[in-house]
Known about the structure:
The complex is a heterodimer of chains A (293) and B (383).
Chain A: H1 2-31, H2 38-55, H3 60-83, H4 91-113, E1 118-119, E2 129-131, E3 136-138, H5 140-162, H6 164-174, H7 176-181, H8 186-211, E4 214-215, H9 221-234, H10 239-260, H11 265-279
Antiparallel strand pairs in A: 1-4, 2-3
Chain B: H1 2-27, E1 31-38, H2 45-64, E2 71-78, H3 83-96, E3 100-101, H4 107-120, E4 123-126, H5 132-136, E5 141-143, H6 148-162, E6 167-173, H7 177-192, E7 196-203, H8 212-220, E8 225-228, H9 232-244, E9 250-253, E10 275-277, H10 287-300, H11 306-324, H12 333-344, E11 349-351, E12 354-359, E13 365-366, E14 371-375, E15 378-381
Parallel strand pairs in B: 1-2, 1-3, 3-4, 4-5, 6-7, 6-8, 8-9, 9-10
Antiparallel strand pairs in B: 10-14, 11-12, 12-13, 14-15
Amino acid sequence: xxxxxxxxxxxxxxxxxxxxxxxxxxxxxxxxxxxxxxxxxxxxxxxxxxxxxxxxxxxxxxxxxxxxxxxxxxxxxxxxxxxxxxxxxxxxxxxxxxxxxxxxxxxxxxxxxxxxxxxxxxxxxxxxxxxxxxxxxxxxxxxxxxxxxxxxxxxxxxxxxxxxxxxxxxxxxxxxxxxxxxxxxxxxxxxxxxxxxxxxxxxxxxxxxxxxxxxxxxxxxxxxxxxxxxxxxxxxxxxxxxxxxxxxxxxxxxxxxxxxxxxxxxxxxxxxxxxxxxxxxxxxxxxxxxxxx
Amino acid sequence: xxxxxxxxxxxxxxxxxxxxxxxxxxxxxxxxxxxxxxxxxxxxxxxxxxxxxxxxxxxxxxxxxxxxxxxxxxxxxxxxxxxxxxxxxxxxxxxxxxxxxxxxxxxxxxxxxxxxxxxxxxxxxxxxxxxxxxxxxxxxxxxxxxxxxxxxxxxxxxxxxxxxxxxxxxxxxxxxxxxxxxxxxxxxxxxxxxxxxxxxxxxxxxxxxxxxxxxxxxxxxxxxxxxxxxxxxxxxxxxxxxxxxxxxxxxxxxxxxxxxxxxxxxxxxxxxxxxxxxxxxxxxxxxxxxxxxxxxxxxxxxxxxxxxxxxxxxxxxxxxxxxxxxxxxxxxxxxxxxxxxxxxxxxxxxxxxxxxxxxxxxxxxxxxxxxxxxxxxxxxxxx
Lengths: 293, 383
């Protein structure tokens, strides 16, 4: 029975990684940049939700919407102020800027909310399901997180596949210059991508803190890095890949902790990543792009 | 436009040069210079900022005392709990003319700085770096807190006295000197007292965001008592997750657990019945504690933890020793160091974190660890 409990634990944290990874992969796929500040937008989303529920006494859904609204605006502002001026510069410059934004957000959060940890009240009010005399416990958070991440994945796939904006995004992803020549507003498309990615980050933040309730200014950074790994494992740029990668990383991590060593779990996770990338360099579901010479 | 910016920058540089001058000339004044490094930003900032505020309150009090002949001057530096940054912060403080060092806040950083202070003959008194290596680094390094192995051993005794039959599960932070030290001390003593440890599991700084597996492991091993030699930040998550999976063991924590009741949003009913070793109780009714808690709350908006109280005591202990030895602000750090060593190894000090504290020649403190139980959301002394 143990093994199933660990599997559930793994899926639970994996589904959170999956939602974060979806944000990473969207922004990378379309803007071709690694937004390392994504983890910290998650943290901001969680803080907003915490403030709205604890200080204003609003219900959970209001908190979620408020967090999404604030993060969307934050994402657009970050993109406009920090990344847009760097369009066309070497990707290294953008990467360093992203790391800078990440530090900025962490320290700003520390100034606003102080470094003392806060305990996030889960937005899920569902009672845990206890099976086999309490040997197996499925918490409400697991079910909600898995459902939401699946929903977000399907939603994003449909959005990029069917809508005009989604098609524009794919076109920009494919070839930015050609898209511009075809009359697509590249800047606006990238801003929209950031807006969606940041709104997703808010959802991820609320779900992350519902699963792991300790909220600190550094809360987003480690899950952010895990989720980035998940996005690479699944094939960065691929929406189903992010989902698959997230869940896999969650499960591998939990099993490594339970059956190998709690101290070596990261080593196991990253070894798996290296092996998979050696066999499939583009990730599990990533597209192999032929370089034309 | 560029010229204007360049002019402005030049002006700023010139001004900062002047500022440097003035502060330097001021530093030869009549105040004893106390330096501190600690994590003021980053993941451990909660401990560093508490220590900083504790020191500041004590320094303000002492300087405001009209009968006082020895004024104090205080400068903090950020080390982000990192050894290298602590060393560079320490060097900045030395350039400033620091005469006494109260720090560092965390053990790993202190292990890096302590040997340097011994070499430079600067007196070191740490409020909260509990590693045994800090005290043994030299004759001039002293601790205000318990050493980790001693505290771990005390925890084992507390468990042996109160829950001799318990099946014990342990979760500790393997990447943290404090937690590992407690764990080692506990393990040795537990073997000696033949306690029944059924599950030992750990996490690291990088994997602490998800501890559900560790809790599940303890539950599956049938542990009915969880010993948590960790800080309250991670403990609040463990308690939360355990309650979600209907697991309610007896919890026993150490002084790093102090603060768990003040975590904003934390359901304190989860911590009911937890026993912890702590030298400081913010709910104590004596006048000194009450006045400190009031000042701290006014300054920071939070309730002080033992980190703040230990830091406050550090300043008073140094002050008491310095006055007794007739130290003057114009003395060389090495002379002050020798005078303070003599005082610390012979004096008795009463502070917020204990009465009748003494130090041995290693620099380790002797004070009674108080065991409290959380009852109705406050600490109650355990009988």
